[in-house]
Amino acid sequence: MGRRVVYISYDGMEDPLGKSQVLPYLKALAARGHQFELVSFEKPPHATQFRKEVSDGIRSTRLRYHKTPTVPATAFDMLQGLSALGLLGLVLRADLVHVRSYVAGALALPFVIGTRRPFLFDMRGLWPEERVADGTWSETGRVYKGAKEVEKLLVANASAITVLTNDMAQYLRHEAPFATSIKAPIQVIPTCTNLSRFHPEVPPDPELSRVLAGHRVLAYVGSFGKRYLSTEMARFYLAWRRVAGPSRFLVVSRQSPVEMQAVLDQAGVGHELVHRSAEHDQVPAFVRCAEAGVFFHPEVFANRGAAPTKMGEMLAAGLPLAGNRIGDVEEVLTRRDAGVVLEGFDDDELTDAALRLAGLARSPGVVTRARRTAEEWFSLERGVEAYDELYQKIRWEHGFDVDRSWPR
Question: What H or E segment, with its residue span, contains residue 101?
């Protein structure tokens, strides 16, 4: 039986995450009979709108996102979101409120408690710790401490909780200081990938293929900032080119790879970095121009809950990967021999890992192994099935029988 769901996301539906990690799920769940009122926050210049049907079973209310000053802007967004949610809840008589991460959860909490509606907390990762890790908040500051108090309320009031990694589920079940207050089942659903879009049979981009012809290509896809180890990835490329021969470093990002470029420039090989900015639907053809990928993140507490989107996308395209020890990365890459996991970033470790990845990229069956790894861990269809199961089982009480690791 389909459920009537109010879904709240602080990410906009015009953002890359909204396009890749929200709308595909909701469209697939709507096809299974669920009805959605989607509330999202859109960044300029994208338009706001009220209750527009975006596809069968999904009506969308898009509110304006405000960025600065940070705390007052977020508080204002929460108030406008709460107002919209109250109206939508009355109109829809929702069976369930599904929130994506902390801000969406905080704005919905008064409505959920006041109406006693079932509440799915799609926790994603440890958002307060992520804000500390990227330098936005201080661990001793009032904003961080307030966010941790909100976190306790969210997990205590949730009817079900979803997280991205088994490591995160382990923390919540057994290690978190508020573990005993969690009565809801915990379901692991990683950041999933549209496997029909990212696929080894996608033709490589013709123009980019000509630029990269005759070279062994290592790829990085995604953003930059304090949550990404850009310098270490550039140093890994330098190790790659030493062991692999004539090479190019393909960087697919809407941002300029300034730190990576500086490292390669200093080594005298800056011309080997090939940067492409791409819309999400262009990324698969660009990725298919590479034979291996790399992604490194700081090994901080916050990243126990991280399942990088780029990992699933590059694996789905058939690329073996080099990663480091965050979340479930080690288990993902080593179970089917689909990549290498670094212990550190000294020169010897980088060289050893680059040598292993360069060999793996030319080994028989590696494309199939990478693809099967993506199907096992990051299938959108399997993620949709897991959410559908939660929707069907969530009732007014906690305690139904779902508390699972991934892959299922």
Answer: helix 101-115
Is the domain of 294 the same as that of 305? yes
Same-domain status, 156 and 13: yes
- Spell out a b/e string for 109-127, using b for 16 or more CB atoms within 10 Å of the CB, else e: bebbeeeebbbbbbbbbbb
Nearest Cα to Cα of residue 288 among 354, 371, 357: 371
SS3 44: coil
Whole-prediction pTM value?
A: 0.88
Q: Which range marks the domain in which residue 104 is found?
A: 4-190+380-393
And the tokens for 279?
A: 């819309």
Query: Which residues contact residue 70 at a Cβ distance below 8 angstroms, ignoring those fewer than 6 apart?
Result: 136
Any bridge partners for residue 7, and if so which? 38, 98
- Residues in the chain, overall count: 408
Say which CATH number the domain at 300 has: 3.40.50.2000
Domain shared by 161 and 39, yes or no: yes
In whole angstroms, give the CA distance from residue 40 to residue 104.
9
The phi and psi torsions of 35 (rounded to 5 degrees) equal -115, 135
- Rounded mean pLDDT for each run of 10 residues along the chain, 408 residues in total: 88 80 92 92 75 84 71 66 67 84 88 86 92 90 93 94 95 93 93 92 97 98 93 98 98 96 98 94 96 97 93 97 96 96 96 98 97 96 93 69 73
> Are residues 9 and 41 in contact, defined by beta-carbon separation less than 8 angstroms?
yes
Other CB atoms within a 10 A radius of the CB of residue 139 amount to: 12
CA distance linking residue 43 with residue 101, whole number of Å: 18
Judged by DSSP in three states, 274 sits in strand
Task: Give the type of residue at 262.
Answer: A
380 is written with which tokens? 């959108």
**CA nearest 357: which of 309, 319, 310?**
319
What residue ranges in 27-81 does DSSP mark as E strands?
35-42, 49-55, 58-64
**Domain presence at residue 105:** yes
For residue 352, what are the contacts with CB-CB under 8 A and spacing of at least 6? none
What phi, psi does 211 have (nearest 5°)? -65, -35
